[in-house]
Amino acid sequence: MSTDNPAAVRLSKRMAELGLCSRTQADVLIAEGRVMVDGQIVDVLGSRVLPHQEIKIVEVDLLSSALTPNDKITVLWHKPVGIAAWPGAEFTSFFVPEQRAADDRSGIVWLKKHRSRLVTPLGLDADASGLVILTQDQRLAQKLAQVNDFEQEYLVWLNQVASSEQIDAMNAVKMFDEQPIKGWKTSRQSEQQLRMVIRANAEGVVPDLCDVAKLTVKAYKRHRIARLPLGNLPEGQWRYLMPHEKI
C-alpha cells in the first residue's frame, strides 16, 4: 500500500469505484478490520492504495470464529518490571503484533482499534512483574473492580530467610490502608520465597505487607488472577482471552 505515490487514492474511494460498496460503507468496513489489500488487513481510515492493488471485503467468520468486529476484546499481558500498570497510566505501547505470544490460539485478527479504550481494573506496581488483564468490556471491568471478590496470587522473593514467626505475623494482618483484607494467606515456597494469596489491590500492597514482618522484597510477580493463571506467557508479551476462559 502506498501513501506517497501520486497515483494512490483513498481506499474508500477505490472501493466505491470498483462497485464493492459506497464510500460511507467502505469507511465502516475499514474501521471494523474487514478490508484486505493484497492479503493484508487495513483498518486505518484514510489509507491510500494504487489502482493495481487487490481489494477484498472479508467475511466476519473468516476473520475469527471467536470474535465479531463489534465485540470488545480482553487481553492478558505478562507485564515486565519497570512499567506501572494502574488506571490512568499509559502503557498500551506494548500492545503491538510484534509482542503477541506465538502460542495465542484465539484466532483473533489484531486491529489498531483494539488499543483504544483499554482499561486495567486490577493494577500492578512498576516494581512487580506478572499478569495484567486489559479489557474494552466495561461490564468485565466493573466486575473485576470488586477486588474483594477475586483472589490474586503472588510469588515473592525476599532478601532474607523468612521465619515461621514472621509468616505468622503477616497472616495476622486484618486491615490494609484502613480496609479489611479478605482471603489473605501467606505460605512458604522456600527459605527466601513466599506465596501470597490476597483479595486486595492497592499500590505497594505486597511490599507493605512484607514490611509488617520486617521482611524486604527482592522481586514479586502476580501469578494468578481468580481462575486465570499467568501460565507460560513470556514476559513482555500478550495474548487474547480465549472464549472458554473464565475469570
Rg over C-alpha atoms, rounded to the nearest angstrom: 23 Å
Number of helices: 6
**Relative strand content:** 25-35%
Structural class: alpha+beta
CATH third-level topology of the largest domain: Alpha-Beta Plaits
- The shape, in one word, is elongated
Question: What is the CATH top level name of the largest domain?
Answer: Alpha Beta
* N-to-C order of helices and strands: EHHEEEEHEEHEHEEEEHEEE
Counting DSSP E segments of at least 2 residues, the number of strands comes to 15
What fraction, in percent, of the residue positions are helical?
A: 10-25%
- First-to-last CA distance: 40 Å
The name of the CATH superfamily of the largest domain reads Pseudouridine synthase I, catalytic domain, N-terminal subdomain
CATH architecture of the largest domain: 2-Layer Sandwich
Flag low-confidence runs. Answer: 62-69
The biggest beta sheet reads: 8 strands, mixed
Overview features:
EC 5.4.99.21; Alpha-Beta Plaits; eight-stranded mixed beta sheet; PsdUridine_s_RsuA/RluB/E/F_cat; Structural Genomics Hypothetical 15.5 Kd Protein In mrcA-pckA Intergenic Region, Chain A; isomerase; 247 residues; alpha+beta; RNA-binding
Layout of strands and helices, then pairs:
Elements: E1 9-10, H1 11-17, H2 23-31, E2 35-37, E3 40-41, E4 48-49, E5 55-57, H3 60-63, E6 74-79, E7 129-135, H4 138-144, E8 152-158, H5 164-171, E9 175-176, E10 179-180, E11 182-190, E12 193-199, H6 205-212, E13 217-225, E14 228-229, E15 238-240
Parallel strand pairs: 7-13
Antiparallel strand pairs: 1-4, 2-3, 2-5, 6-7, 6-15, 8-12, 8-13, 9-10, 11-12, 13-14
Helix pairs in contact: 1-2
